[in-house]
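### Sample
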Amino acid sequence: MTSARLSSSNASTSAHTKLLDDRRFRALLSDEDWGRLPLATWRRFSKRVADGESVVYVGVVDEIFFSEIGWWFAQAARLIGGPLPTGRDAGVPMIVTVTEDGTTGGQTWTRICARKRGFPHVIHSAKRFAGPTGLEEYVGFGVSMALRTAVEDQTLTFRSAGYGLQLGRLWIPLPRWLTPGDLTVTHRDLGDGAFRFTLDVIHPRYGALIHQSATFREAVS
């Protein structure tokens, strides 16, 4: 396993992996916003592998915080697939695998976070380039979240824009009391092939519920 803190070399995709031009994320932003992204971020979100192939990122959890309510909410969310972090350990390895889904034209994401004791925690989700905002994330049992994409201070930012339940072709909005509140994910380039991922969940009544940040590099094949 390669840690983002241990490796200083620029990682590259395997020579056997076929790369395609990916305009799916580019289509979510204005020309002005896309142009404000660092070149490394632009390249990372313009690279697409063939259907069924994967890109792997390896790193380490820098920070993790739960409020008391946030921790219990994360445990309860395991009933629909565990879409939120559940461990309190910082300084542990984290691996993210992004696989192209040829059936939906989207991506399957798998996040594996080690623990200092016990088995690692695994989060599965699927991104689809659909819906009113152009991007949706499905976490299990038909539960999905619409995401709005923006660029803030050269950081690629994804913010929740409503939660829903998919029943066949019917999408039913979930009431706010059944949701964790506002979710924000950021991707900030750090230079030298590294980037920082952050996850924040803030409830309109209970405040900050969850914060996690991790530093990654693309794995060398």
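The chain has one domain: 56-218. This sample (DUF4166 domain-containing protein) is used throughout the tutorial notebook.
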